[in-house]
Amino acid sequence: MGSIALDPAVTAVRRRGDLLFAVAVALVYVGLSILFVLLVHGADDRMMTLAERLTQGRLDDPSFAGTVDSATVGGRSYVVVGPMQVILFLPFVPFPGLYHIAGFVIGPTVGAAAALAALPLVRAYGARDATAYWLAAFTAFGSLLLFVSVEGDFYYLAQAESFLCLELFLIEWAGRRRPILLGIALGLSFLARPTTLLAAIPFGLAFLWQSRFRIGAAIRLGAPIGLAVLGYGLFNAARFGSPLQSGYGIAVLMNDRLDALRAGGLFSIGHIPENLRLAALDLPAISTRYPFIAPDPNGMSMALVSPALVMALRAGVGLGDRLLLWAAVILIAIPVFTYYGGGVVQYGYRYSLDLTPFLIALMAIGTRSGIGWLGRGLIAVSIVSVVLGSIWRMQVF
Questions:
Q1: Cα 356 to Cα 351: distance, rounded to the nearest angstrom
Q2: 254, 68 in Cβ contact below 8 A?
Q3: Rounded-to-integer distance, Cα 302 and Cα 349, Å
Q4: Contact at 8 Å (CB) between 181 and 172?
Q5: CA distance 124 to 117
Q6: Which terminus of the chain has a lower count of CB atoms within 10 Å, N or C?
Q7: Once rounded to an integer, what is the mean pLDDT over residues 130-146?
Q8: Residue 212 burial by CB count (10 A; 0-12/13-18/19+): exposed, middle or buried?
Q9: What is the pLDDT of residues 163-196, one digit of tens each?
């Protein structure tokens, strides 16, 4: 293997393949985002308002009152988002003329970065040659990463941000396992999607065991995560008076279905059957209009949206990374499927993105010996599905 890796001809082919993949990512992510700009004529500007207020030392604004996912506490109105969603909007504050397209710049930039990270991710877990490109293509174009990245929606941005951070975490885990970088990646992912912090349990325990419980290593791993948790707590306390109040339990929903579900608890085992139905069984209606499908905006079966994810099962169950990856999937699935809402309006089940980076690593482990025609077919179907879903989303704005 070593001599093949050093072969100049093989290296040149790989460089050309990597370049073509990067060009494809740029064209698709930028192209679809431009289409959204042309069709939608601007994104929700509440993040720009929040970013502007943040530079003034405030987190509230009267314009937030009564809007969806807002909460009013003590006469002040806040938009209920995580800190990572607003941070990337801050550089646009000095440029009011760009406010309406800021989301369309940020989303595809983060998404494209995550798409490009797919190649080193799958290679780090054993995918080789053409198989690596197939898996990277699935990640970039056949997973819901594409869908959440190109429409300028700050809700979706959280998933893209977390996805990228988890990829970087997994790449570092497969490589040098520097604790400070592992902790930073997990901490940033938490600031975007708090559910993903549960991955720290299996990976953290494994790291401590492998480092023979050295105090210095534990501190370097835990300090960035602890700072992220503290930062999120202070962010909550500044808005809602308590570090444990995220605002999601008191937010305005403007959706009778979600109101009824939340009345049963923000998190509850009673929500599991409906979430599993949406994520695994829900089917689209057939439409006579292009793109000829009418997905349920509450959710749709991931077996139709990204069927290639089933290839993660090829990794099997065992010790080492397989065990850690499956443990992370299971732990993160608990809050995802016990949460009252599945992430409307959407194509598929976008909260599944909290799990997807771990599943992609498992896909790479399971295809070390090659991908086969069935796997390629599943990836092709996934890509067609997600692209059609993005087009459908343009039509329902």
A1: 9
A2: yes
A3: 7
A4: yes
A5: 11
A6: N
A7: 97
A8: exposed
A9: 999 999 999 999 999 999 999 999 999 999 999 9
- Percent pLDDT > 90 in the chain is 74
pLDDT band at 2 (very low <50, low <70, confident <90, very high): very low
d(CA 168, CA 273): 33
In whole angstroms, give the CA distance from residue 250 to residue 348.
26
Q: Are 280 and 301 in contact (CB under 8 A)?
A: yes
Helix segments in 253-371, DSSP class H? 256-262, 272-276, 302-305, 321-338, 356-366
What is the rounded CA–CA span in Å between residue 212 and residue 210?
5
Cβ atoms 111, 323 nearer than 8 A: no
> How far apart are alpha carbons 64 and 69 in whole angstroms?
9
Give the per-residue pLDDT at 4: 45
Please give the model's pTM, rounded to 2 decimal places: 0.94
pLDDT in tens, 263-319: 899 999 999 999 999 999 988 887 776 657 788 888 899 999 999 999 999 999 888
Per-residue confidence (pLDDT) for residue 136, from 0 to 100:
98
Whether 36 and 152 have beta carbons less than 8 Å apart is answered as yes
- Structure tokens given for 147: 């869908």
Strand partners of residue 71: 78
Token pair for residue 270?
């009673």
Integer angstrom CA distances of residue 77 from 65, 81, 193, 236, 248: 5, 13, 22, 13, 14
Exposed (0-12), middle (13-18) or buried (19+): which is 380, by Cβ within 10 Å?
Answer: middle
What average pLDDT does this structure show over 73-94? 94
In whole angstroms, what is the distance from residue 240 CA to residue 142 CA?
38
Question: How many CA atoms lie within 13 Å of 19's alpha carbon, on the beta-carbon side?
Answer: 6
Q: Residue 266: phi, psi to the nearest 5?
A: -60, -45
Amino acid at 20: L
How many residues in the chain? 397
> Where would I find the beta strands (DSSP E) of 120-171?
none
First to last CA, the chain: 51
For residue 273, count CB atoms less than 10 angstroms from its CB and return exposed for 0-12, middle for 13-18, buried for 19 or more: exposed
Per-residue pLDDT of 343-386, as tens digits, reads 778 888 999 999 999 999 999 999 999 999 999 999 999 999 99
Taken in order 238, 224, 125, 133, the sign of the CA dihedral is positive
